[in-house]
Amino acid sequence: LTGAQDGSVRMFEWTRPQQLVCFRQAGNARVTRMYFNSQGNKCGVADGEGFLSIWQVNQTTSNPKPYLSWQCHSKTTSDFAFITSSSLVATSGQSNDNRNVCLWDTLVSSGNSLIHAFTCHDHGATVLQYAPKHQLLISGGRKGCIYIFDIRQRQILYTFQAHESAVKALALDPSEDYFVTGSAE
């Protein structure tokens, strides 16, 4: 799966030089993040205008429409994570009201899909990592701060200053004992 600054999203197969599917044409907002869900049957694309779009992967058409597309953040959606069976999605980004980390239910109508919004990261959240064993979300922000959220209780557990500049990467070890942050500095 490839995404570009021009907004295009294409899927390829290892043994074929031509694309299998073009999910988005050039001319859309720049792609900020893309993932497959754990089952591999859906892919999601976040973009610079605050949208998250999700497609079924096993499409028979060459230019399929997303089965779900909504604006998660008013400025940008920088990252997202499929939670559990992928009907629950967490997003990070930047919104005018500082609701910069959100939980969404993809099985309800778009008007009711926001489950919870965390007010955090004054200048926006840049990255997001889901820890399934502990049911935690870890987010990094533009000002170097890290927030850890309990998604069952929908509350902020910890916050600390990890870097002086924007957090650009988060990685979680498989046992969920440690996580690592990387910054723009």
UniProtKB/TrEMBL annotation:
> GO biological process annotations for this chain's record?
vacuolar acidification
SUPFAM superfamilies in alphabetical order: WD40 repeat-like (SSF50978)
- Which PROSITE patterns does the entry link to? WD_REPEATS_2, WD_REPEATS_REGION
- What residue spans do the WD repeats cover? 118-159, 160-185
What is the name of the gene encoding this protein? Dmxl2
High-level lineage: Eukaryota, Metazoa, Chordata, Craniata, Vertebrata
Q: What is this protein called?
A: DMXL2 protein
* Species this protein is from: Steatornis caripensis
Keyword Magnesium in record: no
The residue range of the signal peptide is none
For this protein, the record's Gene3D superfamilies field holds:
YVTN repeat-like/Quinoprotein amine dehydrogenase
A single GO CC term for this protein reads: RAVE complex
**Which UniProt keywords are present, listed alphabetically?**
WD repeat
